[in-house]
Amino acid sequence: MATTSYQNTTRGFVKTPHGNIEYRESGNRKLPKLVLLHSSPRSSMDYQNLLAYVDNKFHVIAPTTTGYGDSDRPPYPYETVDEFTQSLEWVLEGLNIEQCSLYGARTGAQIAINFQTRNNDMVKKLILEEPFDYSNDEGRALHKKIHTYYPEKADGSHLLDMWKRAGGEKLSENFKEVTENFMHYLNINSDWKDVKELYWEMGWEGAGPYAICNFNVFKSAQKITCDTLIIHGSESRLKTLHQKYLNTIKNSSGIIVDTSQYKDKLGNPSNISGQFSPHIEPEKWATMITKFINP
To answer: What is the pLDDT of residue 183?
Structure first.
């Protein structure tokens, strides 16, 4: 395991049977463990600026899903949530984490659900941000629409498309983050022909989406044994399944966050379509999860 310093965060890699997996961590290692799982095709960079809001209460670990960010691609294309979950198990084993609370956002929520059912005694509390069910024709069509590869173009315009996708055309104050996200898109876009047909022409970034589109999430959710918090935004279309999650998971509670005022700096509706985002309300996010884990 190798580590490097990044501001107040440790960034390192865990060697697993399927390659080196990137992670970020912050907080005193004697504090309770909190593991944060990002959505696809993002990376643990998503949590870089959020760690400071919770690392006074928790030892926080944010791994990057295998195949994304600076994590290695697996030796063969993953097709199931079980494979991604196995990778996470290797990471936490490598970091000697025996028990933790687990937070999963979107794609990460699906992995978090599966991880809990495979490791009942290991997860103290489970928090799911904007969970949904994509194992249907509608879900598959949605992911095919929003995930794509960028074929190389002689004039380099595919790079500009990726830059825009990383947030570069917005009035961002954090161009370092935009640049790193762009590099992640650039990396994951390489060798897209290897999986063009397998991942419905989404390229390598479609690995996670492909897996959750073939995952019976509610069948798995029925097996969850720990206290669980479900978070949706008031304007999120994913909120339609909020009550179903509460009805399916024993010992669960839910929060609907008012996202009607979410705007980006250009004054347009947020690009997450009314979904709750901890980046917009980090203090509220930190308070919600801290209160739930440590009532």
So the answer is: 84
Cα 105 to Cα 112: distance, rounded to the nearest angstrom: 9
Amino acid at 116: Q
Q: How far apart are CA 110 and CA 253, in angstroms?
A: 17
Q: Which amino acid, 167?
A: G
CA 175 to mean position of chain CA atoms: 21
Q: Please, which residues have CB within 8 angstroms of residue 215's CB and are 6 or more apart in sequence?
A: 80, 81, 110, 114, 134, 135
Distance between CA atoms of 114 and 223, rounded to whole angstroms? 9
Structural domains in the chain, CATH included, are 2-141+207-293 (3.40.50.1820)
Q: Name the more confident of 156 and 272.
A: 156
pLDDT reading at 270 higher than 60: no
265/260 Cα distance (integer angstroms): 15
Provide the token pair at 187. 């990396």
Give the pLDDT score at 272: 53
| Paired strand residues for 187 | none
Task: Fill in the amino acid letter for 57.
Answer: K
> DSSP letters along 137-166, please?
HHHHHHHHHH-------TTSHHHHHHHHHT
- pLDDT over 50 (residue 282): yes
Q: Which residue has the tokens 């104050």?
A: 173
* Distance set, CA 117 to CA 35, 95, 218, 248 (Å): 16, 20, 12, 14
Q: Which two tokens stand for residue 256?
A: 């609907």
